[in-house]
Amino acid sequence: MIALVRDRASGEFVCASEELEVHVYFQRGRLAWATDASRPLAFTRHLLEHTRIDADTYRELLETCRREKRPLGETLVSWGVASLDEVRDALHRQIDMAVGSIRSAGPAQTLFLRRPSQFEGYDTRLTFELDDILVGLAEKEAGVEGCEDGADREPRPERVTGVRLVPPAAVRRTELEEIRASLDGLEWIERLDGTALVESSPPSPGAASRIPAAVAARTLLDGAQLVALRLAGATLAGVQLPSGQSLWCQVAAETTVGAVVTSLTALLPSSTEPTTFAPAPAGELWTSERVDASLAAPTREFLERCPEIHGVVVTDESKPVLGIGRASISAESLHARVGVRGSALTLASGVRSADPDASATELSPRRLMSAEADYVLFATELDRHGSGRFVWIALDRACSKGLGWGYLTSLGRQLSNLWRTAAA
User: Fold this and answer.
1) Long-range contacts of 380-384 (CB under 8 A, 24+ apart)
2) 340: nearest Cα among 392, 268, 404, 400
3) How far apart are alpha carbons 257 and 236 in whole angstroms?
4) Which residue of 86, 237, 240, 252 could cross-link 82, Cys pair, CB 3.0 to 4.6 Å?
């Protein structure tokens, strides 16, 4: 590794034995990141323990980065989900543990794969000098910091569920079970005509739809093309079918909203929406009549920095306390849409997961994503499940949904801090 630093090499260094497998990635002689098979969650665990990113949001962004081949650390910083220092701390922890494993290992085989072009564009602010890592390890070995052998070992990661995209043909009545088999964590699936149940798998108790009629009426029957509602212990999602009917399903909490949305999006008719974002003409932002002054300034600043967002609404117990937007969207229409979708989320919260203990153990905030005709609407509950405070973002349809989750998390964190400070 020291020789690689001197050579200013870029690529992947692998060190392996029967008891060890470590990968360290170099960018022009600096350490960019590392993985240690015995501690696979070092980076993730540090982020979740030392930042305000919740597990659901992190998994959504991780899946987005994998699908769109974005660097995770840079994306967390650029979207405002975590600060540069927070990501650096997590990376440092990850690299520190990996290099420590190599130093304490016995005989091992090593291999270096040169990949200069792959790492050329990586942000150098997220890289480290090997000397700094070694100095820190030496201090630990001298007794400045440490733990008993094995105490810092991490458990095996839980399996992250994924999806296999399903073509529209799979929606045929005789192939409903194929849809069921295509999405991991699926608890049940139904096809509706309006609010009437056409078929379900497994069969619905009492031959009635599991979807509250009011939820369907306030989402897919009200113009939404696709909707996903993150509840206590499960995700409830629906999509409009080309036939005019709709498909609804409930998926266990282990499957991310992004995975569900990806699968159901494949059932939509061929899209004609723009593939590139075109910023709205510059102009004054409008502000709704009801305004919480403590939230207005930071929300306006956030909107000015994020041209992909058409408008933002903040609600408290279903009542709007702030609305700011661009000329590309009217205040009346956005507030009306938020009111209808918000009531659907409240009504859907009564739907129970197949896991009887899920509601008691699931503490993450409620979330919503709906693909509207003119934008994609994102919402998240602030602070905790049951707080009743939500922030809503209308994102341009040409943008990545991962960007929407990132913006939502960043703005939500700012508003939560302001509300908490005001309460203190």
Assistant:
1) 380/57, 380/408, 380/409, 380/412, 382/412, 382/415, 382/416, 382/419, 383/416, 383/419, 383/420
2) 392
3) 9
4) 86
pTM over 0.85? The answer is no
- Among all chains, which residue has been given the structure tokens 């091992």? 108
Q: Which helix (H) or strand (E) holds 15?
A: strand 11-16
Cα 90 from Cα 74, distance rounded (Å): 13
| CA distance linking residue 262 with residue 332, whole number of Å | 30
**Encoded tokens for 293:** 């002054």
**CA–CA gap between residue 360 and residue 380 (Å, rounded):** 19
For residue 104, the Cα-to-chain-centroid distance in whole angstroms is 36
Q: How far apart are CA 54 and CA 165, in angstroms?
A: 27
Spatial separation of the C-alpha atoms in residues 5 and 177, rounded to whole Å: 54
Q: Which residues lie closer than 8 Å to 132 by C-beta, 6 or more apart?
A: none
- Residue 92's pLDDT is 92
- Residue (of 8, 3, 23) closest to 110 by Cα position: 23
Is residue 65 within 8 A of residue 402, CB to CB? The reply is yes
Most confident stretch, 82-96, 191-205, 331-345: 331-345
Least confident of 12-21, 53-62, 194-203, 332-341: 53-62
Interval 269-313: pLDDT, tens: 765 455 566 676 667 899 987 777 888 889 999 999 889 999 999
Using alpha carbons only, give the angle 382, 342, 264 rounded to the nearest 5 degrees.
Answer: 95
Q: What's the one-letter identity of residue 412?
A: G
Separation of alpha carbons 225 and 241, rounded Å:
9
pLDDT band at 161 (very low <50, low <70, confident <90, very high): very low
Nearest-angstrom CA–CA distance, 332 and 355: 40
Say how far apart CA 396 and CA 424 lie, in whole Å.
36
269-275-281-283 Cα dihedral, nearest 10 degrees: 70
Q: Could you tell me which of 359, 113, 344 has the C-alpha nearest to residue 233?
A: 359
Q: Give the strand pairing for 376-381 and 367-371.
A: antiparallel
